[in-house]
Amino acid sequence: MKKHAKLLAALLAAALLLGLAACGADGGGKLTVGIIHITSIEDTSGYTYAHHKGFMEMATALGLGSDQLVVKDSIDDQNVTATQTALQELVDAGCDIIFATSYNYMDSMAKFAEQYPDIIFSHCSGFKSNGTNFNNYFGRIYQARYLAGIAAGLKMLEAEKPLAGYVAAMDSANSEVTGGINAWALGIQSVYPEAQVKVKVTGSWFAPEAEAAAAQALIDAGCYVIGQHCDTNGPQLKAQENEVFGCGYNSDMTEFAPAAHLCAPIWNWGAYYTAAVKAVVNGEWTPENYFGGMAEGLVDISPLNDKAVAPGTAEAVNAARAKIVDGSLIVFDTGLAKADGTVIGHALSDEEITGKINYYIKGVSLL
């Protein structure tokens, strides 16, 4: 397997060298790839850590040198001036494709795509595209949330503790966050039907102090497992400090909370970055939005923490994963009911999942 991987990397590198002359925005020269991150690439876990890891995996797979990579990190996605300054610097650096990894970069990316039609702009976690040189990429992270929910639910069932907590960056109006909460709850309820999930909203994607405080409030309210959609490992550190358990996000947080962390829904961003840049190299890039999942290798959970998970967790998770991949388990299926008891009545489409889940399901409520 390793020999095959090395051979593939070599073939991709060779293909890159053959295609470089045709890939530059100016019709020649080396391919240059840019990216904007909301926090620092020096982070040791979390959102930017996962994206930067995937970005560097792409560079390795395609044989790109450091002089072909331009990274702008710690760019506040709510600061339009800072965002557009970073984008302009990437354009001026000769980038042929530019990635932006946070939701609020989307409108600036759309504007720059219109200004610079010879450059490809690829944005993460939004929904816009222009049909020419601007697309959006994201995926079915809710599938991994469901698996993490199984691990959480079995741990709760083991201790007969029916209450879990969730630190949420945004309120129910944000479909990405709310869909993740609902999927985690569905995973929990699949093994512990009586379980409930309490949600504490911070109002920010990156707010270390608020995230830790929200986790503590949930624990004080009796929550036994803490899930999260926020950028730091603070909730998992609070879980360990209080001798309860947790499911992180974006990267494996077990090393930071070895006694508490069960597993984390994770992104394998290298799968998308490699495919996208390879498509540019081969002249095959298209502006369609990308929405991959577990079957495509884009999402999964980190290795289960054997020191923390309940007996039987691996078997239950593996069985559910296989069904998700083969399509026999649909997370948001026809039996889905809102918190007020209203039955949705149909399996949710990708459009609904990405932009129209603005409600909590039965068993989920704000703290």
Give an account of the 3D structure.
The chain has a 6-stranded parallel β-sheet with strand order 2-1-3-4-5-12, sandwiched between helices. A 6-stranded parallel β-sheet has the order 10-9-8-6-7-14, with helices on both faces. It is built from 11 helices and 14 strands. It is an alpha/beta fold and 367 residues long. Strand 1 (33-36), helix 2 and strand 2 form a beta-alpha-beta unit. The protein starts with a helix and ends with a strand. The longest helix is centred in the middle third of the chain and has 19 residues, at 141-159. Helix 2 packs parallel to helix 9 (269-281), helix 5 crosses helix 6 (175-191) and helix 7 packs parallel to helix 8 (234-241).
Notable features of this structure?
11 helices, alpha/beta, globular, disordered N terminus, 40% helix
Oligomerization = single chain
Largest sheet, strands/sense/barrel? 6 strands, parallel
**In percent, how much strand structure appears in the residues?**
15-25%
Q: What are the secondary-structure elements, in order, as H or E?
A: HEHEHEHEEHEHEHEHEEEHEEHHE
Write the layout of secondary structure elements.
Elements lengths: L1 H18 L13 E4 L10 H16 L6 E4 L7 H13 L4 E4 L5 H10 L4 E5 L9 E6 L1 H19 L3 E6 L6 H17 L4 E6 L6 H13 L4 E5 L4 H8 L3 E3 L13 E3 L1 E3 L1 H13 L8 E3 L6 E3 L11 H14 L23 H6 L8 E3 L1
Parallel strand pairs: 1-2, 1-3, 3-4, 4-5, 5-12, 6-7, 6-8, 7-14, 8-9, 9-10
Antiparallel strand pairs: 11-13
